[in-house]
Amino acid sequence: MINVTKSYLPDLDEYTNYLKGIWERVHLTNDGPLLRELEMQMKEFLGVKHLKFCTNGTIVLQMALKALDITKEVITTPFSYVATTNALLWEGCTPIFADIRPDDYNIDPDKIEPLITENTQAILATHVYGNACQIEQIQAIAEKYKLKVIYDAAHTFGATYNNRSILSYGDLSTCSFHATKVFHTVEGGCIVTDDDALAEKLHFYRSFGHRNDDYFSIGINAKNSEFHAAMGLCVLPKVPALIAARKQVFGYYNDRLDFSKITRPSLTPGVDYNYAYYPIVFDSEETLLRVVDSLKAQNITPRRYFYPSLNTLPFAIASGNGKEQSCPISEDVALRVLCLPLYPDLTEAQVDQICGIVNEAIAVVSENV
């Protein structure tokens, strides 16, 4: 079985050494020493000022919206994982979908400005597949209309834009440390800002709004445990080597796939990529479905990531007075995009097998046209 991704696990003895310390201290959660150590190391690794390690990549989106007092309309992308839209709806906001760019599938800044109304409070954009959005253009729009910028940077750990971590941009930026990500803590996420006041607010939001017996604000339970922090401390030093290994697998695909019938999203100039995903786009959904069936017949599981276009989800439509917001590029790409298996120890022989199946399925479809 070859899955679309495979979690990296460190040496068991290395992880167990951290567990021994947890057993000795009997400090399992509540801002423990391993969590603080991981936060410090991540800030240093990413070169960011404030970083809060939390339970997952969705709750930090919710915290971002709450911390910035966003309650009305938010212009966002329809081409993302559903958590981006769910966070908006969960916090009572109205998602306004701006279509995507046809080359990199990130939100199109040229489509944002016409959607701004007196109720618009923020832009929530996703760096799709770990590739940076048009950051300068988005920031210019935000400054012109006095909007906040939140980035769903779930895919970007280890990637940089203009020699800065992609997580360092925006008023707030969030990341996921789910087990499938380039860097993971089994489950987890973080929220990043360079604003001291926001960082303090987020600190209390994460822990029910109090420190010891002193209460400062509303809050929720977004604390992560020492066990998750221990995994992060094991994995973090390996990230450069893991990215290098992913890059090698990425190159195998580039060399072996038949690009006469498929395309790939372009990389934003200035991005040093982390090779988080390997998406390809077919000429039709029919071709995609044939490729998926052919791969699954050989116990290979790709993923339709992202599908469907979020503006077509019934509950998203319902949030906008029952009117579907048209995003034709996203709707089209979502039908035709497929992520192939990509993880550090995927072998060259396995990539050969995957590419052979994909190329053959594409050729069969072409012959039948």
TrEMBL record:
GO terms for molecular function: pyridoxal phosphate binding; transaminase activity. The modification N6-(pyridoxal phosphate)lysine is found at residue 181. GO terms for biological process: polysaccharide biosynthetic process. Keywords: Aminotransferase, Pyridoxal phosphate, Transferase. The active site is at 181 (proton acceptor). CDD domains: AHBA_syn. Coiled coil: none annotated. Belongs to the DegT/DnrJ/EryC1 family. This is DegT/DnrJ/EryC1/StrS family aminotransferase.
